[in-house]
Amino acid sequence: MRDAPSSSLEAWLARLEAAHPVDIDLGLERVAEVARRMGLLEGPIAGRLITVAGTNGKGSTVTMLEALAREHGATTATYTSPHLLRYNERLRLDGREATDAELIDGFEAVEAARCDGEPISLTYFEAGTLGALHAIRARRPELAILEVGLGGRLDAVNVLDADVAVVTTIARDHAAFLGDDLEGIGREKAGIMRPGRPAVLGSPRLPASVAATAEALGAPRHALGDTYHRTSEASGWSWRGLDAQGSPLRVAALPDPELPLDNAATALQAFALAGWELDAAACRRALSRVELPGRMQWRGQWCLDVGHNPHAAEYLAGRLAERPCRGRTIALLGMLADKDADGVIHALAPAVDAWLPVSLDGDRARSAEALAERLGALEARVLHLADSPGEGAAWLADHLDPDDRVLVCGSFFTVAGVLAAWARAAQTSTDAGSEGTT
């Protein structure tokens, strides 16, 4: 017999976390069967579906696709992971975060289907993905955009067939699940492609296996630097590509979205291939207004970015070099134990003057002391060690000069910890002010 459903979102999330023996269990058999029981495989859940895979750049590509669609008047749904502060961030419906009630309705539908017959065990991510797809189908937006959580071929979002498949970048990450062979990683991520449906390749440096997969499937290939291009110009940058019928397109005088321009160009190409006629003014509005917390997010002297592998760190170092400061650049760094800390430190080192390593919580966490050892071996200057991102941010706030800047990076958990600490401090200040007026 199925347990009575939990009443709150927090209770549901705790239940889902405890429901499966492992956090990551790649494979589509279990999730596909529950999706079938839910009726998710009976027809499209949206007018058009774009799935985005890759090592880095997935979140920014999804966000820019959503912005483009909304500025063109389309109804939208996006599903991304992980979240920073609230689980609700993972599902956005017409530009707003899903409510607790919408998420719980999805979880209840998943639970009912999971136990309809022989019970099927699902991971936290699998149950969350199916719940999000249930919510999206209920609204049937004109465009749904799904971000792959890990890999591609065996990821839960791949239970649905994408109208347009996007692969942003390929680098080494999640080696325990995907291995270290870039060609093999490329094949896994290209597993979201479907026969005869467009595949957008968002980097000119992808492994050959990605293009080979598209060719083997007969998926029309649209590659950055080949089928579509971005070019710097005096008034911003311009984009050239193709529409769904293969006719040439060009949009000029585009603004810098403060996100990777390769991903912006990729979003434009994927959106055009999904069937929309690009309006230049709408494209400019979308890219000028797009915001993505935790990706080159500036708050005064502080820049927060969830980059956690050498490829992402190299991009961060380049962006910081474009914005020189008169003071020090200090990296508040927190990383998981299964990430390439040496590679990240090497990539960031040209742009960083001093470091503040912090400890993260959890089974996969790396301590500040362990990070300090790696930094010491590389003769990097360590200012202080902190037991948490919030503690590190508080220490830095008391030791910054006006011309200094801070890069918070290394993990979603690092950025989330600092944002949460700031939110608590703001709430404490608000509460204190309220008490003072009573």
Automatic annotation (TrEMBL):
Q: Which reaction does it catalyse?
A: (6R)-5,10-methylenetetrahydrofolyl-(gamma-L-Glu)(n) + L-glutamate + ATP = (6R)-5,10-methylenetetrahydrofolyl-(gamma-L-Glu)(n+1) + ADP + phosphate + H(+); 7,8-dihydropteroate + L-glutamate + ATP = 7,8-dihydrofolate + ADP + phosphate + H(+); 10-formyltetrahydrofolyl-(gamma-L-Glu)(n) + L-glutamate + ATP = 10-formyltetrahydrofolyl-(gamma-L-Glu)(n+1) + ADP + phosphate + H(+); (6S)-5,6,7,8-tetrahydrofolyl-(gamma-L-Glu)(n) + L-glutamate + ATP = (6S)-5,6,7,8-tetrahydrofolyl-(gamma-L-Glu)(n+1) + ADP + phosphate + H(+)
Signal peptide (residue range): none
| Gene3D superfamilies with a match to the protein in the record | Mur ligase, C-terminal domain, Mur-like, catalytic domain
Which InterPro entries does this chain map to? Folylpolyglutamate_synth, Mur-like_cat_sf, Mur_ligase_C, Mur_ligase_C_dom_sf, Mur_ligase_cen
For this UniProt entry, which segments traverse the membrane? none
> Cellular component terms, GO, for this chain's entry?
cytoplasm
Pfam families of this UniProt entry? Mur_ligase_C (PF02875), Mur_ligase_M (PF08245)
The molecular function terms in GO held by this entry are: ATP binding; dihydrofolate synthase activity; metal ion binding; tetrahydrofolylpolyglutamate synthase activity
Please provide the record's keywords in A-Z order: ATP-binding, Folate biosynthesis, Ligase, Magnesium, Metal-binding, Nucleotide-binding
Known pathway: Cofactor biosynthesis; tetrahydrofolylpolyglutamate biosynthesis; Cofactor biosynthesis; tetrahydrofolate biosynthesis; 7,8-dihydrofolate from 2-amino-4-hydroxy-6-hydroxymethyl-7,8-dihydropteridine diphosphate and 4-aminobenzoate: step 2/2
Q: Where is the Mur ligase C-terminal domain?
A: 294-412
Task: Give its E.C. classification number.
Answer: 6.3.2.12, 6.3.2.17
- Tell me the Gene Ontology biological-process terms attached to this UniProt entry: folic acid biosynthetic process; tetrahydrofolate biosynthetic process
Tell me which domain of life the UniProt entry assigns to the organism this sequence originates from.
Answer: Bacteria
Span of domain Mur ligase central: 52-194
Q: Which family does the UniProt entry place this protein in? A: Belongs to the folylpolyglutamate synthase family.
Function, in words: Functions in two distinct reactions of the de novo folate biosynthetic pathway. Catalyzes the addition of a glutamate residue to dihydropteroate (7,8-dihydropteroate or H2Pte) to form dihydrofolate (7,8-dihydrofolate monoglutamate or H2Pte-Glu). Also catalyzes successive additions of L-glutamate to tetrahydrofolate or 10-formyltetrahydrofolate or 5,10-methylenetetrahydrofolate, leading to folylpolyglutamate derivatives.
What is the protein's given name?
Answer: Dihydrofolate synthase/folylpolyglutamate synthase
